[in-house]
Amino acid sequence: MSYAMNPEGLTPQAPQPSRNEALAKKIGLSALAIASALTLIAVLVSGSASSITSNSGSGISSLDQSGGGDSSGGDSLYTPDTSSNWAPAGFNVWSADSNIAWKWNKTATCTGEYSCWKADFISETGCSYFYAALNILDANDSVINYTNASLPSLLPMQTATLQFNDIEGTGSTGQMSVINCG
Question: Residue 69: CB partners within 8 Å, gap ≥ 6?
Fold first, then answer.
């Protein structure tokens, strides 16, 4: 279950099939086959894999708490939108909202007593509020918890670094699951 921040507070959001899953169902191919084909097309169109290096395989991946990613591909539940070129180098445009781009911050250290993940976010046109949620996965890639962070606003082209704490200390990897910019 994912959650969305709105003016009334944090509310559950019904899971929505990804564009790849909807297309896969419509034409009878697996979501993995669709994601792989779209990745290949993006590489061929861009002429370089640098803008999508974190988007191979299943399109779903994570970052371990030591700062290293796993080998399964992308950094989130969403495939980065490589058609938008406003984002700075290294950032992936969030496919559910092309006004937002993000990347793992692998160099920042955790502040406080908990293990954590950090991510950098930027908005092309700004946000009157900003919310991001991270799934916490165990060693078997099962979601065991979540953590979130928010900001009251984010100015156009302003970068924000947010920390996602694993308060229980049970997570192996983190997976970006929700980014909302209002």
Answer: 54, 61, 62, 63, 75, 104
Q: What's the Cα-to-Cα distance from 139 to each of 1, 3, 63, 65, rounded to whole Å? A: 20, 24, 12, 12
CB 102 within 8 A of CB 117: no
Distance CA 154, CA 120 (A): 12
pLDDT at 113: 87
Q: Within 13 Å of residue 90, how many CA atoms lie on the same side as its CB?
A: 9
Domain spans, the chain:
2-181
CA–CA dist 182, 177 (Å, integer): 17
95-136 confidence digits (pLDDT tens):
999 999 999 999 988 888 888 999 999 999 999 999 999 999
Average pLDDT for the chain = 71
pTM of the model: 0.59
Say which residue the tokens 């406003």 belong to: 86
Q: Which helix (H) or strand (E) holds 46?
A: helix 31-46
Q: Which residues of the chain have pLDDT under 70?
A: 1-84
For residue 77, give both structure tokens. 């539940």
Q: Which helix (H) or strand (E) holds 101?
A: strand 100-104
Cα separation, 32 vs 157, whole angstroms: 33
